[in-house]
Amino acid sequence: MLDYRNGKIAKLLDGEDGLFNANAEVRPQFRSGASPAKEPFQIMLTEGVGLASPAPKDTRVHRYKNGAYQYSGKFSQQKLDDYIEKLLKESQQR
Fold first, then answer.
1. CA dist 38 to 29, 30, 34, 35, Å?
2. What is the mean pLDDT of each run of 10 residues along the chain (94 residues)?
């Protein structure tokens, strides 16, 4: 994954950190305790043998720390989507 800084191309992620084959998303941080207007965007890379495969899809999260993007952890995309479904159903019941 590359960035453009001071007129030059810079690597954001090295080696396996930058691998993905299902989805890549660069987005603000809306988690509790973070100010989206002040925090650098986070990079979320989803891997899992392509969209048609029933294999698990895991998303690796990279956040900016100490002057570089660093791996922060990963989560199951299926669990996240299931949670979103639950929230949508709850919002319809209100």
1. 9, 11, 8, 5
2. 61 64 88 92 87 89 87 95 97 90
Residue of 81, 83, 86 lying closest to 23 (CA atoms): 81
State the Cα–Cα distance between residues 23 and 59, nearest whole angstrom. 8
For 70, the token pair is 């660093």
Q: Where are the domains of the chain?
A: 2-92
> Tokens 């570089």 sit at which residue?
68
Sole residue written with tokens 């299926």: 78
pLDDT at 88: 97
